[in-house]
Each structure stands twice: as C-alpha cells, then as structure tokens.
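User: Second chain of the day. Same drill as before.
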Amino acid sequence: METGLVVGIGLFFLGIAAGLPLCWVFVGCSIAALIVIGTPLSFMAGAAYHAIDSYILMAIAFFIFAGNLMSESGIADRFVRFSYALVGRIKGGMVDVGIVTILFLGALTGSSVPTIAATIPLLVPRLEKYGYQKRYTTAVLCSSSFLGYLIPPSVPVLIYCLVAQQSVAAVFLSTVIPGFLLAGGYMVLNNFMVDKYMTPTKEVPELPTGFKESVKEVGASTWAALPALGCPLIVLGGIYGGVFTPNEAGAIAVVYTLIVGLFVYRELKAASFWKTTQTTLVTLGMITLLLGFGTVFTRLLIREGAAQAMADGMIGAFQSQYLVLLMMNILLLIMGMFIDGIPILIIVVPLIMPLVTDIGVNLVQLGAIVVVNVGLGVVTPPYAMSIFVGSKMADVPYAELVKPMMMFLFIVGLPVLFLTTYIPALSCWLPTLAVGAKIVGPW
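Assistant: Same format as last time:
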C-alpha cells in the first residue's frame, strides 16, 4: 500500500480516537496523504465541489427542514392518539403505541433524534403512571428511533443515493419491507417482555367500551391525524406518479407542513419556526462539510486503489459471496458502534461498491443493507446517539437502557439485517414493482 494512504488512514483513526470533529479529520487526513503522495492540493477543491454540486442535497435540506417543523407543530400528539386507537387494547399495547407512533412520525421526519425528542416527553411519564418502568419504555422508544430511516422519505437514503448515484425512488422503496419487519418484530418481542417491566397500578388508561365506541375512536383519531398523514402520501405519490422530482417533493413537504402547523393544528409559533430554521441550517452545514471533505478523502483512497484492493482481498480471502456479505455487515456494525451514520455512508459506500459489484449484488439492495446497518448503529453502544438523547430526556441512566435495548437488537434487529442481506426480494420487490429496478445477484 502507498505510504500516503497509510499516513492518511492512520491519521483518520487517530483523529476519531482523539474525538476531533470528523470534517476536520477528513481535511487533515487528505492534506497529509496528498503531500506524501505528491499530488497538488487543488485536488481537494475539485473533489469537494463535485460532491456537493447535486440537486439531491437540496432534497436533503428540504426534508430536514420539514421534519424539524413537524416535531414542533403538534403532529406527534395526533399520532399518539392514532396509534393508541389502533393498538392500545392488545397486551403491551401502550408500549406498542410508542413503536407505531415512531414508525409514522419517523416516516415524516426521516430522522431518529427529532422522533424520540418528540415522543419521550409525551409517552414515558404517562406510561410510568400506568405501571410501565421508565427504563423499559425509554429503551423501546430508543430502539425504535431509527425506523424513520427505513420509511420514506429518509435522509440517510438520500445521502446514500447522492454518494452511490442511485435512483432515489428505487432506494426509498427498498427499505420499506425491512422497516415494517423491524416494527412488527419489536411489537411481538414487546408482547413477551413487557410483563417483566410492568407493575400494575390503580391508574387505568381510558379505553372505549364496546365495538361501536372503539370504531368511533379509531375514526376520530384518524381524522385528527389525517392532515399529518397527508404529507407522505403527497410526497411519495408525487415522486412515483412522476409529478415532481425528489427535491421538489422536499419543498412541497415544507410548504405542506407549514400550512398544517400554522392553519390546521395552529401549534407552530414564530419562535418555534425560527428555532427549526436555525437547527436545519446547522444540520445542513454539518452534512455539507462532511460530504465535501469526506468525499475528498474517499476519492483519494479510490484513486490510489484502496477500494479495489479491499474488494480483491475480501473475495480472495472468503471466496463465498455469503461470507463476503457477512464480513461487510460486521464491518458496518462495528463502525456504527463508534461513528455516526452520515460519515459511514460517505466513507464506506464508495469503498464497498466495487466489492458488491464483483459479487453481483444490486446497488438498490446495497442501499437497504447499508441503511439498516446505519440505523442499527444509532442504537448500538458505546456511541449510540439515540441512547444519549433518550437517557437525558427521560432522566434514566445510560447503563439501564442498554440491557433491554440489546434484547431488541439481537432478537429482532440483527435477524432482519441478515434477511435483508441474503433475501434480495425483501429490498428489491417493491422497487421492481414500482420503478422497474432489477434484482441482480448470485442467489
């Protein structure tokens, strides 16, 4: 391996271990590697510019803004009521309410942190009053927090499409079935685990009595949530109906959310609007810096042959496509334990694309595999953003959340990941049906 690559990769891991901001780690690694290799530093300007010169970055900005607006506009309350009407009666149904709420809310925000930030204050104190241990309900909400990555529109999917140059419409659909499998699996596991973490109290949640009253409540809660549910229907219907492009869909999502928050629910205030605007700009700035400088480092690695060398090495070492995919998943999971999802998408995807191409894996399926991995990384210690946020918001020690969350990870999360990896139809059937993406693979 070139000395410059050794220097760059070594400084990269050293910077991560030191806790330096990742964008500056990328800059430092790239400069050091370029100097040692003897390549002009002007390489950085061109690579960074081409990385961020994309309409998909506009879509990312719009969807982040729409998601932040939704968390401030009263939509979460309507989804709690809607979810309660759907699953509140079954065993452990009050906890299932949180899973279903996050599934719907995550589909609107496309992110994990805003979702649990909106649902934990709404659900955890209420469920504690009904006898559910605070550590358990918080753990379930944190474990479910990444479901929004898998239900379109999804910001990680958009970033994957930007890096891998894939169809947004196809990859959006590739993660839907894995997302519903995870949500359903979490609800089934909760049914078996909930008794251990619940002490019945005199407080009993109000439930409709009789079939007629239940139907009435489902109808009323659906009507209340209908304006919020309309956003993904309009966005996805417009994209797959060919009415507008993904970035136009993001702009429409922002306008639609503003109308719902200001004039329908009337809970979006001026102060909240400016707060979400600032949060969006900061988040977008972070993503742009990571994307620009991360792409510089990744393209340098690819140009010097690191990606092809890794592909040749793994195929030569493991021979079997199944083992290659297993090692790829292990690599992504380990990286997710220490690095946030966006840098993983920027660094790893370009490096593994030659590998998966050589073994015949469709890049649409790769999108589903990578996004599920990135989602699981959000809930995997030691560096798990959802656990940090959930622990702070619910006032539960970090260590108390880990044990129940690991049950959801090992019993549901990892099996769904391996199903997504080894059964291409789970991720490619919907894209094939909707946009004609072909299932390609050695299976």
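The chain is about 80% helix and 0% strand.

User: Great, on to the next one.
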